[in-house]
TrEMBL record:
Positions of the Aspartate/ornithine carbamoyltransferase carbamoyl-P binding domain: 7-149
SUPFAM superfamilies, alphabetized: Aspartate/ornithine carbamoyltransferase (SSF53671)
Pathway: Pyrimidine metabolism; UMP biosynthesis via de novo pathway; (S)-dihydroorotate from bicarbonate: step 2/3
Residues bound to carbamoyl phosphate: 58-59, 108, 136, 139, 264-265
Keyword field contains Transferase: yes
EC category name: transferase
Role this protein plays: Catalyzes the condensation of carbamoyl phosphate and aspartate to form carbamoyl aspartate and inorganic phosphate, the committed step in the de novo pyrimidine nucleotide biosynthesis pathway.
All residue ranges annotated as the Aspartate/ornithine carbamoyltransferase Asp/Orn-binding domain in the record: 156-302
Protein name according to UniProt: Aspartate carbamoyltransferase
Known EC number: 2.1.3.2
A Gene Ontology cellular-component term: cytosol
Domain of life according to the entry: Bacteria
Length: 307
């Protein structure tokens, strides 16, 4: 199959066939991670710039790891300590780095649509590494890969996403991706953090947490996106934990072989009870490893190396 996309901006732009192809490519490339020397020459001579205007640990470092395994050169740019602090715009930053030979930009920005804007005007490949509350397509892809690996299929599964759905780009891209691949998505959380049925992208909105959890194949907890709230949407994190935190008792409502997921960073004691830290149902660290594989796949597919 030919991959006809120049950018990865939003999961909604991908067909189920595109997604399957990305997941297959990632699953194949994952083998490289197990080699004693995990390095291949596929992207030698390519330059990838990681532009992060918001904090990140997993996404930024897994992109860097992916690029380096594929032998691409990398620029790791964080807004702090750069000329952004002197007033340089995102576009000027991108054009200047492009003048140094950048082939692909990975962009995280607090403004929804920033990577889309750069993709339109910069004339280089762009991957969205999270734009505001809007989209986080590579997170959705790594989540799909993790579930596909564990369950063998995505179609027909019940996926429960719990927490701050309304302000979460992980939820928006996750709902879209899981639905595209034939899963049923249920969302629950405090009413102030839930989308209306019209805004729920086809997910079933449950005001009762138990309804989302009962019989679920996948339970994904999300962090409260406090930085994106204008005002307090919940009295306290302790209260949040009591009412919506996933603990062993609540997880027992899901299928016995359910997968427990979280995109990180986890606030233990808030969205997940510490008693689940070493739970065998947790695939949280496997999500992280799959993040490297998915990002390797996207770099290869966009930069035209052969896998
Ligand atoms: C998420 C993000 O930044 O959107 N983290 C991630 O990329 N793995 C989730 C979050 O910050 O809560």
């Amino acid at each position: 199959m030919e991959f006809r996309h120049h950018h990865i901006l939003d999961i909604s732009a991908l067909t189920p066939e595109d997604i399957s192809y990305i997941l297959e490519t990632a699953a194949n490339l994952k083998e490289i991670l197990t080699r004693p020397i995990p390095k291949v020459p596929t992207l030698r001579g390519k330059l990838v710039a990681h532009l992060f205007f918001e904090p990140s640990t997993r996404t930024r470092l897994s992109f860097e790891r992916a690029a380096k395994i594929l032998s691409a050169d990398v620029f790791n740019f964080t807004a702090r300590m750069s000329s952004v602090e002197k007033g340089e715009t995102l576009l000027d930053t991108v054009l200047n780095l492009k003048a140094m030979g950048v082939d692909l930009f990975v962009i995280r920005h607090s403004m929804a649509g920033a990577p889309h804007f750069i993709a339109q005007v910069a004339g280089t490949r762009v991957i969205n590494a999270g734009d505001g509350f809007h989209a986080h397509p590579t997170q959705a892809l790594l989540d799909l890969l993790t579930v596909k690996e564990k369950k063998g299929t995505l179609a027909g599964l019940k996926v429960a996403i719990i927490g701050d759905i309304r302000h979460s780009r992980v939820a928006h891209s996750g709902i879209c991706g899981f639905k595209k691949m034939g899963a049923e998505v249920y969302v629950s959380g405090p009413a102030t953090m839930l989308p209306s049925a019209r805004e729920a992208l086809g997910a079933k909105v449950c005001y009762r947490l138990e309804e989302a959890l009962e019989g679920a194949d996948v339970v994904m907890a999300l962090r409260v996106q406090k930085e994106r709230h204008g005002k307090d949407l919940f009295p306290s994190l302790r209260e949040y934990a009591r009412q919506f935190g996933i603990n062993a008792e609540r997880l027992a409502l899901a299928k016995p072989d359910c997968l427990l997921m979280h995109p990180g960073p986890v606030n233990w004691g808030v969205e997940l009870h510490p008693e689940l830290e070493n739970d065998p149902r947790s695939v949280i660290l496997e999500q992280v490893t799959n993040g490297v594989a998915v990002r390797m796949a996207l770099l290869v597919l966009l930069l035209g190396g052969t896998a």
